[in-house]
Amino acid sequence: MSIGFGLIGASSIARDVMIAAIRSHPNCEVKSVFSTNIGRGKQYALENNIPKAQESLEDLLNDDDIHAVYISTTNELHHQQVLSSARAGKHILCEKPLAMSLDEAQEMISICKDENVVLATNHQLRVGDGVRKMRDLIAEGAIGKPLAARVFHAVYLPEHLQGWRLSDPNAGAGVVLDIVVHDIDTLRCILNAEPEEVVSLSQHAGMATHKKVEDGNMSVFRFDNGLIAQIHTSFLIKYAGDGIEVHGTEGAVSINNFLGRELSGPVTLKNSEGEQHFNSTQNSIDEKTINLFIDAIKGGTQPGCTGEDGERSLAAAIACLESAKTGKCIKI
Predict the structure, then answer these.
(1) CA-CA to 27 of 20 to 30 Å: which in 109, 158, 216, 298?
(2) Domain map of the chain by residue range?
(3) Distance between CA 184 and CA 231 in Å, rounded?
(4) CB atoms < 10 A from the CB of 54, how many?
(5) Alpha-helix runs per DSSP H in 192-245
(6) Among the listed ranges 86-90, 200-204, 241-245, which one has the minimum average pLDDT value?
C-alpha cells in the first residue's frame, strides 16, 4: 500500500528536510499541501513538485489519496489541526511542541486513540544513533548509577527563522518551547526517566522582539531517578557547539554535534576500562522518523516519539517557563 502524505503548513522544515525524508520511503508520496495563504501554497507546491495545493484544510482532509499528514504550522494551530485530521481518519506526525497546553495535548491523544489513528510527535533527536547508543550504554550499567547530566544546545537562530519565534508569544515563541522541549525529550529517552521538578532562569538578550519572549534559558531539572540535569539553550550563541553528557558513579558517556540531521559525532564512554568511541552509521534522523512512523501505521508498533511522549516533554517545558516567570521551583 502506498501512503499519501498531505502537508499541513508550507514550512521551511518541510521544504528543507521532511519532504525528502517522506520521499525516501519506497511506499510514500507527498500528494498535497495546505497553507492558510493560498498563493503561498500554490507556489510552494510548484517549487517542491507537489501535485495539489488545497485551498482549505477540509479539502486536504477529504482527499481519499491522503492517508497521513505532517503538521508543521505554528504551535497554536496544532491542537485543532490534529483533532480535524484524526476525525478524518488520517495518521498524524506533528511538529513539536505538540500543543500549547497540557489540556490540548491530552485531548489530542484521546481523540487519536478514539479514531484509531497514529499520533507521533516530531522529536526527531531521540531516534538518532548516538542518542540510542547513549541510552543503551546507560541501561547496560556502563556508567553505574546516573547522577548528573548536562545538555548544551545554544545556537544562533538562522535569519530565515527569525520571525514568529521571536515575536509572537501566542504562537509559542521563545527558546523554551523551541529548544528546551527538544532537549528534555532527548534526556527522557536517554535516561528512561521522567523529570519531576525544575528551576529555571530565562534571558532577554536582544534578539527577541517581544518582552514576553525569551531568547536564552538555563534550567536545572530533577528526574525521578534522582539525577539532576542542567540545560543551556539560546538563540544568540554562534560558536558554542552542542552536546550531551551523562555522569554516573562508575563512568561518563557523552556525544557532541548530536543536533545534526545527518551523522552525529561519536559517542564517548569513559570508565575504569578506559575510553571507548562508538561511531554513528546513520544517514538521516528524519528518514528514520518517517520509517518508524510508517511502521506504526502498517504494523501497530510505536513511532519514534508518541503523542504521550510529546505531552510529557511539553509538561516539562511549561514548568520551565513557569519557574522562570515566578522564580520558584516548579513541580512537573
Answers:
(1) 109
(2) 3-124, 125-286+314-331
(3) 8
(4) 24
(5) none
(6) 241-245
Band of pLDDT at residue 258, cut at 50, 70 and 90: confident
| Element (DSSP H or E) covering residue 133 | helix 129-139
Determine the angle formed by the axes of helices 181-191 and 307-326, rounding to 10 degrees: 120
Residues recorded for the chain: 332
Architecture of domain 125-286+314-331: 2-Layer Sandwich (3.30)
- In sequence order, the β-bridge partners of residue 218 are 201, 232
**All cell numbers assigned to 225:** 531517578
d(CA 236, CA 175): 10
Give the pairing type, strands 68-71 and 251-256: unpaired
Quickly list DSSP for 19-65: HHHHHHSTTEEEEEEE-SSHHHHHHHHHHTT-SEEESSHHHHHT-TT
The CB density around residue 159, as the number of other CB atoms within 10 Å, is: 7
Q: Among the CATH numbers 3.40.50.720, 3.40.50.300, 3.40.30.10, 3.40.120.10, which is that of 3-124? A: 3.40.50.720
pLDDT at 105 over 70: yes
CA distance 6 to 52: 9
DSSP annotation of 2: P
Kindly state the average pLDDT of the residues 12-19. Answer: 96
**pLDDT per residue over 54-64, tens digit each?**
999 999 999 99
Looking from the CA of 163 toward its CB, the CA atoms found within 13 Å total 7
Most distant CA atoms of the chain, gap in Å:
62
> What integer pLDDT is reported at residue 265 of this predicted model?
76
Query: Cα–Cα distance between 294 and 242 in angstroms, integer?
Result: 30
Residue 269, helix vs strand vs coil: strand
Give yes or no on whether 3-124 and 125-286+314-331 have one common fold. no
**Residues 78-97, mean pLDDT to the nearest whole number:** 98
* Cα–Cα–Cα angle for 163, 166, 172, rounded to 5 degrees: 100
Q: In what order do the strands lie in the sheet with 3-8?
A: 52-54, 28-34, 3-8, 68-71, 91-95, 119-122
